[in-house]
Every structure is written in structure tokens, then in C-alpha cells.
Amino acid sequence: MAVPLSWAQWLGYGPFLAQLVVTRRCNLSCGYCFEYDTVSDPVPFVTLDQRLGKLRDLRAWVVCLTGGEPTLHPDLLKLVRRMRELGFRRRQMITNGYRLTNETIEGLNAAGLTDLQLSLDGVRRNGTTLKVLHSLRGRLEMLARSARFRVVLSAVIGSAPPEEAIEVVRFARSHGFVPRVLLIHDELGRVKLSPEELAAYHEVKRILGRAGREAGDYRERLIQAGTAPFRCRAGARYLYVDEFGQVHWCSQSRELFSKDLMDYSLDDLKRQFHAVKPCREMCSIGCARTASAYDEWRRQGIEGRR
Ligand SMILES: C[S@@+](CC[C@H](N)C(=O)[O-])C[C@H]1O[C@@H](n2cnc3c(N)ncnc32)[C@H](O)[C@@H]1O
């Protein structure tokens, strides 16, 4: 793409959210996760800088560093500073929180992080997850004291005894964090919950109120009907950029679509905006759902291409 997208082009087809994998390696190995390995090297800063420059040209509104585990990246603070220099409105990171120290939190404050999503699945360690209150309470209290950025605590229902998700939500509220819940999905992004997990989800939803009904309450539709079709705008409104710089629709559909970010153009955004995704009925990928919600009224498929 020779020139950056114009604002009008961005309004029509540009990315609201881009997630950038900075390293595939993770320090944990959660039993439900398909998004990490234990061996990869971090993506070099210069390469990530080029990718950020390209996302700036595509006018991505929000950029979120993810992985793997982004706090394993040796240039994390430099990356966040660069995101601010490039003018991204929101500069986010998703982390399991294990490596957060006071120094890192102060560094992230100074570098200009705006949002941190910390994954907290339950209260006690179990065979599936170590991302629990008992292990992370001290770091969470540090965050409550020192973070100048917004902190979202996000629990995956299905990874710990269901009643623990309710405790996580209460803990989040009492410490000034924003609570959020995800539903555990399989490698194709599909949800399957037990009756107890369902009951916990409904209790969490009751506590969260409006905030628990993202993107047309798709989770409830998935639970009630087993499907919740939508016009998925991934590849346009939402970009998942892997460690090789390939854009995918999301982390779970890496086999279905990929294109090098550095070659991405307005035409690609339009094509993917209109592409009808085969996984759209059972999808439980929150980022794809929320980034697509604004354009639900617009047509998709062949009749939508003007
Ligand atoms: C892949 S992790 C990467 C960032 C970081 N390592 C972490 O644990 O937050 C991103 C988010 O995806 C969630 N996740 C991973 N696999 C999932 C699954 N099968 N179902 C639901 N959420 C999942 C994680 O819990 C985490 O909140």
C-alpha cells in the first residue's frame, strides 16, 4: 500500500482492533489453550516495529500485544512506547500476570499502556490452569495500587470449578478492575459447557448486568440454540497477526486464511470484510464478535460488494 488509508476508507473497512503476537512462547501451559509453545524466540523488535508501522498505515484504532506470553518479550516497554509514538489510540496487552513486578507496572505506566487484560480463571490451581487468585493475589494487589491503565480481569468459564468464576468477578469489582468472562472453546472456537458451568455463567452475567451481554449477547444465543450466526468482519475490522507477520481471521482459524501483513491493502480489507466465514455460526471468539458488531447491518457476500 503506497499511502495510508484515508479516514473515509478506514470508516468503511479499516481495523478497529489488531492483535499482534510478539512471541509464541508461554511460561505457562494451560490445558485449554492452543495458542502457545515452549520454544519460540521472541519476534525481533525491528520486525515488530515494521508491523506496527503497517498497522498505523491501516489506521488500526486499538493494538493489543499478545502471545504466547507478551511479558516474555525483552523489548516489551520499548514496544509500548513505540505504539504511543505511532499514535494508536488504545495500547493494550493480554497477560497471565505471572511476570508482573512493580518495576514492570511502573514501566508500563510510563510507556503509555492504556489497557491490560489479565487472565484469571479461578481461585485455586488445578490440572488445567495456574492462572488463579491464590497464585496471583499479590501481583493483582500491586496492580490495584500502581497501575495507571485500565485493568480487565478475564476468567475462562470451563477451566476451573464454575463457582470460582463468580469469586473472580467479585474480586475484580472490589479492587477497581473490570470483570469479564470468556467461555472455554475447543480448537475450532466452539463452546461446550456443563449444566454447572452454565449456571455459573448465568450468575456472572446477572452480576455483570449490561456489560455481560457483548455483541448482541452472542454467548447466550450460542448456549440456547447451539449456533449464533453473524456477519464476521475478521480480516478487516479485526486482524490477528501471528509471529510470522501473517494476518488471520483469528487465533483459531489460522488454517483457513492467511496473508502477509506487509502486503495487506485496502482491497484485502474489503475482500475480508465481505468474505462469509465458514465458522461464523458457532464462533465464540469475543474479539471477532465485538469488532464485527458495528457492521452487522451492512450486507456481506457477493451482494455486498459494490
Ligand atoms: C492465548 S492467551 C495469550 C495471553 C496470555 N498468555 C494470557 O494467558 O492471557 C489470550 C487469552 O485467550 C484465552 N484462551 C486461550 N485458550 C482459550 C480457550 N480454549 N477458550 C477460551 N479462552 C481461551 C486465555 O485465557 C487468555 O485470556
Structure commentary:
By secondary structure, this protein is an alpha/beta fold. It has a single domain (about 10-305), classed as TIM Barrel (Alpha-Beta Barrel), CATH 3.20.20. The chain contains 10 helices and 9 strands. The protein has helices at about 5-15, 45-55, 75-85, 100-110, 135-145, 160-175, 195-210, 215-225, 265-275, 285-290, and strands at about 15-25, 60-65, 90-95, 115-120, 150-155, 180-185, 240, 245-250, 260. A 9-stranded mixed beta sheet has the order 6-5-4-3-2-1-7-8-9, sandwiched between helices. Helix 2 (about 45-55) links the parallel strand 1 (about 15-25) and strand 2. Helix 2 packs parallel to helix 3 (about 75-85). The relative contact order is 0.13. Bound molecules: S-adenosylmethionine.
Summarize the structure in short.
With 306 residues, the chain is of the alpha/beta class. Helices cover 36% and strands 15% of the residues. Strands 6-5-4-3-2-1-7-8-9 form a nine-stranded mixed sheet, with helices on both faces.
pLDDT average, as an integer?
92
CATH superfamily grouping: Aldolase class I
Write out the distinct hetero groups bound to the structure: S-adenosylmethionine
CA radius of gyration is 19 Å
Number of strands: 9
* Secondary structure tally, helices: 10
H/E series: HEHEHEHEHEHEHHEEEHH
How much helix is in the residues?
Answer: 25-40%
Please report the first level of CATH classification, the CATH class. Alpha Beta
Q: What structural category characterises the helix and strand content?
A: alpha/beta
- Give the oligomer, counting copies of the same chain as homo and different chains as hetero: single chain
Q: How many structural units, i.e. domains?
A: 1
Write down the CATH topology: TIM Barrel
Q: Indicate the overall shape.
A: globular
Given as residue ranges, the uncertain stretches (5+ residues, pLDDT < 50) are: none
Approximate strand percentage: 15-25%
